Fold this protein.
Amino acid sequence: MKLTERKRKILKVVTERYIDTADPVSSKFLAQAMGGKISSATIRNELADLTDMGYLEQPHTSAGRVPSPKGYRLYVNELMEHKTLSQQETDQINSALSGKMRELDSVIAQAGQMVSSIVSYPAYSAAVEKSSVTIQRYDLLPVDANSFIAVVMTTGSRVKSQLLHCSIAVTPDELPALANLLNSHFTGISGQEMGQKLMSLAGQLGAELFMPLSLAIEYASEVLDRSAQNQVFTTGQAQLFQQPEFQDLSKANELMGLLTDQKDTLPVLDENTSMQILIGPENVNEALRDASVVVASYDIGDNMRGLIGVVGPTRMDYAAVAARLSYFAESLTKMFGKNNQLPPKEDTIP
Amino acid sequence: MKLTERKRKILKVVTERYIDTADPVSSKFLAQAMGGKISSATIRNELADLTDMGYLEQPHTSAGRVPSPKGYRLYVNELMEHKTLSQQETDQINSALSGKMRELDSVIAQAGQMVSSIVSYPAYSAAVEKSSVTIQRYDLLPVDANSFIAVVMTTGSRVKSQLLHCSIAVTPDELPALANLLNSHFTGISGQEMGQKLMSLAGQLGAELFMPLSLAIEYASEVLDRSAQNQVFTTGQAQLFQQPEFQDLSKANELMGLLTDQKDTLPVLDENTSMQILIGPENVNEALRDASVVVASYDIGDNMRGLIGVVGPTRMDYAAVAARLSYFAESLTKMFGKNNQLPPKEDTIP
DNA sequence: CTTTAGCACTCCGTCCTCCAGAGTGCTAAA
DNA sequence: TTTAGCACTCTGGAGGACGGAGTGCTAAAG
């Protein structure tokens, strides 16, 4: 059977109406919405065809029609009009982004919050490394006899630091030497390799050097660990309950679990794709089978990509979400691009 | 009317039974549970008294009895037997805590997760400053012509650092002088004061010094800001739905909102109290009126306190939660106490 | 061949009613 | 003060009736 222009039009109207009201769409409504030129009987014939073709579903005989996942897919790929945001909406996003923030984790977390509040669905947000992270550089700063600060910079120019306490006293003079040792032998390698290398040095160094060294390395490998298990932030879970499809606890519960306790199984975007829409059963994740996900990525520096996604019912407003999400992702890319690594910089103090 | 020993016993049994089954407790059950020596009719008389006194409630005539908030309060204050954890349970907690972790935020967040999974209710976790935080010390590390690393240490010995980019070149020789300036004039004061002081210096310094300085200060005040708005982590929200009282969406929804989007309004413990139980209407927060909160605190270094709380139905198992939470809090205090500021330290590399 | 009017049919959701079960409160006796 | 007995109340689930919404099909019209 051929998908005529009129069928496409009908599918589009059905989808948009259903997105709007969450009620199955009737032939009567369609006849009107399509201009009143054709009768509901004709529409019914078309609907029957579309149902045969798998684009529509009926919750039960004698209910209206609802788009199937296949229908949504066609809608998203071919029928959906790509919205552009209104001035007001871009302003809203821009002002949300204009706050000054430096630390990467905060930026990521906040981005999720903003998106969630803008699209009114739960959102998630993460940063993923393009390649594996290693330590690029170490600095050690003296504090007192038993403490010093370790500062490490990873590939991707993220800087982390921590106060370390050492039961054996460390004189400030020793620190530069230790730092040298670290920089020359413990950069560019994995946490495991660091551990091995450290062991091999165990015999050659006195305890007064070995101990602070091992502390610093322990810290460094913790930093690597933490950036490897890329942290996912989620927000706006409560928005789920606004949706009629999640009035049913059991459905909502599964998704909630995903959003709170198994965040790390949320869909990740393949590299080189800037946005992806996953509809219902297209999701690998069992818990997302009755939901849809829109996920976009943005660039952070050379070695990292940010990920930001929205979770909603299959009935979610794809056009609106996609438009907002892609604008948001682009803005973030620009923002990070400004100085090749960091969030917006204002040269004035507020 | 007097609260006889028998009445207390009955209240205790009612409460524990109700905590266990979530079903109103009948006189028949009580007669059996109390040893079968007295008849259900007698129990009914006693129940009527307890209801008059406000310790029990009836969902409707001809249902069994349920503890009122006042009843729970009495139970918690006087009737509850303080559990001690089994070997297995302490082992579980200890092994959960034994993972090595240094960064404060991660420790806090993880603590919440552990507690939530141990008690099977949603949990929240935060760190609060005992007094206002200021910067104690600055270090600046050269990176390249236009970048340097700023390292700041706050009161309470938390160290934060960030790579900063400056559009005007900064020579490495200038950094120590800048750091001196920062350490002598910009320590021990609030973010606002820093801003003012910076302004007053604006005229006296050339742009090549002023600009990196202002970047560093901007970063420092951001650090202060962030630690002022003490971040609250929540986990295990999905556990709410396991509870029969939150099968009703509207109840659950309100609580979910609190746990995801208004985390910062969750109850905070007064200083000097190590644990507190807030039952139903004792909560100031409207959304918590039908819920209970158990919150405990632990020490982190000199200037900080950790806070860890559990949110559940009023019917929550206070004895179990309180026991686990206080053990957990004590363990954390010990853990942080070890080196007066930091999480567990192992002198060996895994 | 397509469109349309007409009509029978299906299914849902709601509203009632009915009824068993659980539990109480009260009374009167032990 | 305790207890047996009994009438009473309330809930929750099952069953049935019914209006409404919407469809599918047929047969006629374009």
